[in-house]
Amino acid sequence: MKLHIVLVQYFLTALMVFILPIYYAHSAEDVITVEIFKFQFTPQEITIKPGTTVRWINKEKRQYHSVWFEQLGEPEPDYFFPDEHYDRKFSNEGSFPYRCGPHPKMTGVVHVKK
Ligand SMILES: [Cu+2]
Q: How far apart are the CA of 57 and the centre of ligand 1, in A?
C-alpha cells in the first residue's frame, strides 16, 4: 500500500521535473509573434521551421489590418482589430509573401525552412 504511494509520488515528481519543462519549451518554441504597429509588420521577414505557428498581433491604437496570402490564391481574410490576433500554421517549406488587405503597401514574408 505504501509502496504505491511512493511510486505515485515518484511518478509525479518525474513528470514535473522532466516532462513539463520539455512540454513548455516546445509549446513556447512553436509560436512566433509578428507585431503590427504603425502600418508595419515587425519583423517584416521571418524564417521558421515547418510546423511553426505565426501569430500576428495588432498593436495599433485603433487601426484594423489583415494578413492576406494573396499569392496563394486565397480569398482576403477578415480584418482584425487592436489587441486581436491572427494565427497561421506553416507545414510546408517555401517562401510565403503576404500583405495587408486594406493597405497594399504593408507587406511581409514568411520563410519556412528545415
Ligand atoms: Cu493594414
A: 12
Say how many Å lie between the CA of residue 65 and the centre of ligand 1: 4
Q: Cα separations (Å) of 71 from 43, 58, 96, 113?
A: 20, 22, 8, 19
pLDDT tens column, 9-27: 766 666 577 656 656 655 5
Contact status, residue 54 vs residue 88, Cβ threshold 8 Å:
yes
Q: What is the CATH number of domain 31-112?
A: 2.60.40.420
The pTM score is: 0.76
Q: Where are the domains of the chain?
A: 31-112
